[in-house]
Amino acid sequence: MKTVLSDRQQSLVQWVSQATGINTFGVKVRLRGNNLHILCEGTECPQRWHTLSDLLQALQQTDLDVLTSDEQPSIYQVFVYGRRKGEQRPSWCHRVYLNQIDKHLEQVKQALLEDSEKSKQSAGALIVSNESLARQGNPEAIARYLSETLSALGVSVQAKIKPYKPKNSQPEENRLWIFCQSSYSPDASLLAEPIAQKLRYLKLTGYQDAVIVSQVSGETAPDWLLRVDLTPPEVMLKEWARWGDIQAIARLLTEVLSGLKVAVQAFLKESTLHIFCSPAFDPLGTAPIPDKEVCLEAILPQLEAIAPQGILAATIYGQKAGDNEPTWIDFVALPATKYPTFATSPLDLANTGDEPAIIFLLERLLNPDLDWRLLTGGVRVLLLNKNDLLHIMCDAPVCPGRQQVATKVTQFIRQLKIPGIMGVRVYGRRAGNKEPFWNYGVDIEHRQRLVPEATPEFAATSKYVNELVTSETSEPILRPDLTTEEVQTFVTEVARDWMTRASATAKKFLLQSQLFIESDQSAEQRPDVQGLKVALVWGTLGLLLTLQTDWVLGRIIAITTPSPKVASVLPSSSSDQKASLISGKTQSEKTTFFTSTSKTKSSPNQSSVFNASEFTQSDDTPTNNLAAAPLKEKATATAILLAARSQMPSFNVRQLDEQLALYKQRLARTGTPPDVLIIGSSRALRGIDPAALSKALATQGYPNLDVFNFGINGATAQVVDFVLRHVLEPSELPKIIIWADGARAFNGGREDITFKSIAASTGYKQAFQKAPTTANSSDLPENTVKSGEEKIKEEKPEISAYEAVNQSLNQALASLSASYSNRDQIKSLLQKELLIIGRNQTVGSQKQLTDGTSDEITSQQAVDFDGFLPLSIRFNPARYYQKHSRVPGNYDNDYKSFQIEGQQDAAFQEVLQFTESQKISLVFVNMPLTADYLDPVRRQYEQQFQQYMLRLATSPNFIYRDLSQQWPKANDYFSDPSHLNRFGAYEVSKKLANDPMIPWPAK
Question: Of 213, 298, 499, 968, which residue is 20 to 30 A from 189 by alpha carbon distance?
Fold first, then answer.
């Protein structure tokens, strides 16, 4: 045997190499969950029994936990593989239970002594399975038993027993705790039912339930909890049989008679149970008929002990399978004939409001498969009757679906017609959760309350059903002595009194202005002279006010209007101006032409209250410098002008029109589509920087790649599908498209406002007519001017005498006015001031967390010529939530009625088929989100979206990349809870450029 060193710093590879004598280059190890996998390979395949003998002796002397890190969970099993170098599959594999090394050594020694092919089949030492040891209730054995399944998923397991004190003053009980740890966050639906089945299969005694805790390695808080009901299947069967469930009674009787090789079938007719006994196995029809005395002796005590509810008698038959007539019959009365409490059927009890009967009927309704309930525990029902509402909580290892449960339960309760119940509230959750995943309510009768109910009226926020409703002290105070008629009379009197006072106040104000008089005043008291005087006074005041306002506005315009700089505005010649507008070859020409609207840079030593993104600097601007691509010239003015001159009709979405105009200009200038196209909602518009991506790709060996960002605020899957398949021609698309967005763009349950606006536009209709007019972008200005001139020549309407007089008077008054000639500037100034006032007084709503944001970030959108919107503002929760409301996920319209299936899913499938047919690589990037944004509701929807995307990731030409949890705490990378700023966009661009799975095009 080789000498084994037990130094703590020694690696597992070195330890295996020293133990087996195999070179370290021929040893590979992998830790997965609670399992250690060891691969031994060489020029010749290592001998199985010699290698195992050396390794087992080394295992006897070494604690493997010493050789691993403190964070690594305990190792329960070791899998040893042997193969020849160059081969794909191992030649042999052996599993070693670390708690039975001595028995493994005996087995190996026996194999070495015999040293033959038969020795591999010899009995050797008996290895006891982990299942047999776990049935004894030992927590370590239970952990090893569960790890056989979960280690393959990379999940390690530990088991502990903790005392538990019930709330209802019952004696202390033991509760089994299963701790699952992994490097990722496994979905609860993936592990819930397998764990529940394996634990219930053990038929453990002494435990009422088990709690499964899932935790990600390195984190302190558990990811999720799961409660598994460990009630033995026999107890569950007896409980349902007690309520008269025929299937449960037949299952119990079959188990009792299984030793007699008798099969049992049971049927209920009215209040009599019919039981048929026949041979359990009789393929040839020669088996004897079950003995009457033996069958009755086994069946009658069981029926007496069960005492099924609502069943008065039982008729027992003995016959062969397939016979029409029974050989013997016996009739027996059941306890329900002696005890009236057992005579009422469960349905009749439920109609009277009996809660145990309602619970049984609901559980039977929600668990139609008895075998599945015995395997996993099934759906459990908790009931609470409060006032006129019946609250029903449904939980299971996997949360029951709302569509599968809510309708069944409410229809059943409605049929019962329970006295005093006017409404039903149904909740669904995963067993072990404190809060429900969903709720559903139906009012059976109209419920009248004199004061508004609490919102939410009944919040399911606790694990225990008796805490599902609000406490008595939080209930609104009612006046039972008031009738509905009295309340209506009181409200009517208050409304009438308010209307009378409002009318009197308005009348008094109008009379004091002397423009109005009492209608019943006599003619002598209102002469025409008095009316003329009043009119003259008010007319003079109005004229003075008009003149004063005109003078004030003229002074304001004179102050605010800067002196014109002719040299910076006028080009050298008209031909140069046309060339600058049409070709757009140099940035300096664009800056000269659009100098009135584009951004002017200040000198370095000149302080400014505006930052690089034209937003005012906040007092708490972080001082740390973050990496980002240099800011480029704004293209908003160019986009507006190009969109206005485009021959393509509008799509009713300004940003789509402008982005399309910029993209068409890019195509006209380069002659080819860009190498990479970024598309999506505002999360793409702000989240991926084309300049940064192009620069990062150049360092990866992809130089001079042209990247364009086609992000559109509020774009859903339907909008992206429309742009790619109907707006742009296939020849205008690149060979790789980066779709950057998230779960809310795929919510088929919410209203798609952006797509509805597009669908109502003339551009949408023209796109589906497949008759777009293709015109050279260089011809757009001339064509536009010519068409305008022709239109003016064609349209020369006749001017009437009245219109001529009106026009002359307007011109005369305009020559006297100080502000008329500058009316456009006054209009712009007033609009700007109103926007500032409105922005300062606007209270944030849930739309500030969606694509269609209405805050200061999007009010000054200014994309660059690559279609990217760079924002320098950094998300500061302390300041952000002073201006904007913190909207939880269950009140966020973007996640309203969240469902993946629907119109958005159909649009996404169309995009997948289209890109595959055009041989375009489609990469979907799930963009980063902050921890403030990912509350439990949104996190649940994100997990559903993750599963949806992973299912589709097998499609050809489609790649899915998840960055949603990349920087949950790095607020400096975000402009708001769900959108990146230019610093975050720079980091995302670098990360995508370094991704080896994305097939970037090479020039």
Answer: 968
